[in-house]
Amino acid sequence: MEKQIKKKYFSGIDWGITLTPLFIIIVISSALMLVPEKAKGLIAVLRSFFVNDLGFFYILLGLGILGLAIWLAFSKYGSIQLGKREKPLYSNFKWGAMIFTSTMAADILYWSLIEWGYYYGASPFAMENMTLAQRQDMASAYPLFHWGPIPWGFYILPAVAYAYMMFVKKRKKQSLSEACRPVLGEKTDKFPGRFIDIFAVVGLLAGTATTFSTATPLLSEALAYLLHIKVTPMLSIIILLIIGLVFSAAVLWGMKAISYLANICVFVFCLLLVIFIFGGPKRYLIETGITAIGTVVQDFFHMATWMDPLRLSSTGGNGFPQDWTIFYWAYWIAWFVATPFFIARISEGRTIKQTVFGGLSCGLLGTWTSFITFGGFGLYQQANGILDVAGALAEGSAPSDIILNIFLLLPGKWLPNLALIVLIIAMIAFYSSTFDAITLVVAGYSEKDVKRIEEPRKGLRIFWAMVFLLLPIALLFSESTLSMLQTIAIIAAFPLGLIMILIVYSFFKELRQQKIEKK
Predict the structure, then answer these.
(1) Alpha helices in 446-481 (DSSP H)
(2) Which residues contact 403 (CB under 8 A, 6 or more apart)?
(3) Measuring CA to CA, how many Å separate 364 from each of 93, 96, 100, 115, 305?
(4) What is the pLDDT of residue 517?
(5) Separation in Å, CA 269 to CA 184, 272, 498
(6) Which of 37, 108, 113 is closest to 393 using CA atoms?
(7) Fewest Cβ atoms closer than 10 Å to its Cβ: which of 161, 207, 263, 406?
(8) Residue 147 and residue 335: Cα distance in Å, rounded?
């Protein structure tokens, strides 16, 4: 009897989707740890190809996805309800909180504090010899663009497609291949469909590795400062393992834990905002934020299409869009494997129009508030000659060290330490909330039939929670650079971008067959 139960339990697991990505990630992780120099060399070659030769693909895809999302919301299909419920599954506040906190991880805090510094010392639009005012405008506006409507479009449009598949068409499996069924047909259950799902999971693991590897050193720096200990790679690994334990424990609770963590994230995030607003230059933050939003609105299409075509010639160019815009679009594309599934799951009962504009609004409200407040505080120090963040980054200083120095500029003796404590709590909460959500989704990939259970089995959730930590630890051992982390995301995102196009095409193919009931 016991053997029959075990057999039935394991027979419901899709072992190909479960083990193949694990094997690939182990191979990649081993290469990064055992032969780091050769791995870096190969990654550099691939970066040159995907960024310089195929960079236009990411740029055009971003504009196309956002345009289609907005058109869809205003079209006759915008009134389609995603699931037959009298009212949405979650209230507007809970829904918006989970969209923001469960899709951003700790990256939102890390990049809010430091990203502007890279742009302050750069020359967007090939503008040489910029004035102080121009540098300030570009440094405050570009982060809002890179965390603005286009990247959120990479989440929202696929989320609508997945929600339509789950709640309108009621498909038995929640995966990228299933979303492609209108085009692939019977091939969905054969090699093409299997390949899509396997590569999707590998691409997601590469994207999440970038998240952990960029933000974890900041956690290490903050913790080491407060505890008066040295920062070592082992400290970062220990922090990663602690985070893994936290979100592994939380993921066992399923959607209830995610909703609860989202509320905690919002509270801690708002507390950190309050510290920086009242401890910083309030008028400057407000005025710089308004100016930055205006710049993004005015120069949106210039930012979205500038590719610096002279970057490889002897006449000029600095490759700014290749280093940043293309990286960010690729980074967000890599996450579309899981994050939109989560947004789809919590959007049951809403219309397509509500999901598109509600999702975009909640996302932009969270990201722009973060960048205007935290980024504006650091930019003020730079513009007034208090702390040369751009110069330190250009000289190769560790971003986590620079961010720590920014925190120490908060007034008073106790406020910097309090802010660092809140930062640590916020980052762990963001990590846990985000990886709870995507672990729940990816564990669903391993289930052959999700209709028979509301959530994936706990064993699979724990398995994927541990797998998410493998590549980030390998990247820490290989002493990965920002360029290397960016390249990993860019490489993984190209085929995922092709899959995204196929999913969107499949979605619109089904919509054309949908009969819109006139009310």
Answers:
(1) 458-467, 470-477
(2) 110, 113, 114, 218, 221
(3) 15, 11, 9, 17, 21
(4) 45
(5) 43, 5, 35
(6) 113
(7) 263
(8) 14
Phi, psi of 131 (to 5 degrees): -75, 170
> What is the 3 state secondary structure string of 229-248?
CCCCHHHHHHHHHHHHHHHH
pLDDT above 80 for 461? no
Please, which pLDDT band fits residue 412 given cuts at 50, 70 and 90? confident
Measured CA distances, 410 to 220, 279, 315, 374 (Å): 20, 6, 43, 11
What gap in Å lies between CA 178 and CA 165, rounded to an integer? 8
Q: Do 52 and 313 form a contact (C-beta atoms < 8 A)?
A: no
Helix (H) or strand (E) holding 515: none
| Alpha helical stretches, state H, 185-232 | 191-227
| SS3 label, residue 447 | strand
Give the chain's radius of gyration (CA, Å).
Answer: 22
Other CB atoms closer than 10 Å to residue 263's CB: what's the count?
A: 16
Question: Which of 88, 106, 108 has its CA nearest to residue 344?
Answer: 88
DSSP state of 371: I
How far apart CA 140 and CA 120 sit, in angstroms, is 8
> Of the given ranges (174-188, 278-292, 373-387), which has the lowest mean pLDDT?
174-188
3-class SS letters over 144-179: HHHCCHHHHHHHHHHHHHHHHHHHHCCCCCCCHHHH
Amino acid type, 425: I
The CB density around residue 411, as the number of other CB atoms within 10 Å, is: 10
Residue 82: DSSP 8-state: S
Q: Whole-angstrom Cα distance, residue 445 to residue 20?
A: 12
d(CA 424, CA 420): 6
Helix axes 191-227, 399-407, angle to 10 degrees: 50
| pLDDT at residue number 519 | 42
User: Under the phi-then-psi rule, with left for phi > 0, alpha for psi from -120 to 50, and beta for the rest, what region is 136?
Assistant: alpha
Hey, what amino acid is at 6? K
Provide the H-helix boundaries in 307-457: 320-323, 325-335, 339-346, 352-370, 376-383, 389-394, 399-407, 415-445
Query: Cα separations (Å) of 241 from 169, 234, 236?
Result: 39, 10, 9
Q: Is 363:100 a contact under the CB 8 Å cutoff?
A: yes
Helix, coil or strand: residue 348: coil
Dig out the tokens for 92 from the structure.
Answer: 């507007």
- Which tokens in the block code for residue 397? 């200083």
How far apart CA 498 and CA 486 sit, in angstroms, is: 19
